Amino acid sequence: MKSFTITTTIELFDSMDELPAEVKELMQAAFEARDNAYAPYSKFNVGAAMLLDNNEVITGSNQENASYPSGLCAERTAIYYAGAKYPNAVIKRIAISATSQNHEITSPIPPCGACRQAIAEYESKQNEPIEIYFMGESGKVAKSNSLKELLPLAFDRSVL
Ligand code: THU
Description:
The chain is α+β, with helices and mostly antiparallel strands.
């Protein structure tokens, strides 16, 4: 038996004020998108904003459903819209922010596994890394330079 170790790198900023100006702007767009979340069940609002190489910013928020699994996360709402509207655009970076209607969220909220898989698909489609910044409503901001850092051993098209 052999074993191997996978390492991953996440950068941490103390607050969004430490972000480069254009990233801070994208995070602010994610904040605004959060306000459009439809989250009557979880009371957990998530906003995602993506910068494309055509300079468009696509935003999305989580959209819930009384039949719980029919709802969709903010990241996938945004990325599928980006893919549908600009099929040839390259996604440069994604900013994600989450807040709760019940308590304050001050630590970074990473994208869920299904959203990581969806982002992985677009990274592989465009063959260029997507930077991912994620945070709560305040406090530290985490950054991964590529989705690969968040989803090692990803299932992708290479095995089909
Ligand atoms: N949610 C997202 O929008 N993105 C994630 O990556 C994690 C979870 C949403 C789904 C659901 O509406 C609520 O947060 C609670 O799970």
